[in-house]
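# nightly structure sweep
# worker-07 picked up a monomer target from the shared queue
# config: single-sequence mode, recycle default, output format = structure tokens
# input follows
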Amino acid sequence: MSTTAHKVATHAAAAAGRRPPSVLREIVYGMSLGLFAGYLWKLHHWSNQRRTREFYSLLDQGKITVVAAEPPPGTDD
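# output follows
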């Protein structure tokens, strides 16, 4: 089954001296780009998880606090 778009692309590729488009090659390119983008997204989430675990670990150890420090006496804030 050949569509008009496929015929135009095949004719344009032949006129330029290149191979005609391949549906299988396009599918492989699309899947590769999708997997790469998914991997980058997972790296982002793994980084967020690592930072969250690090924060709660420091909080449990008492090295940091989320309570605001009291202003020094004599300041009117």
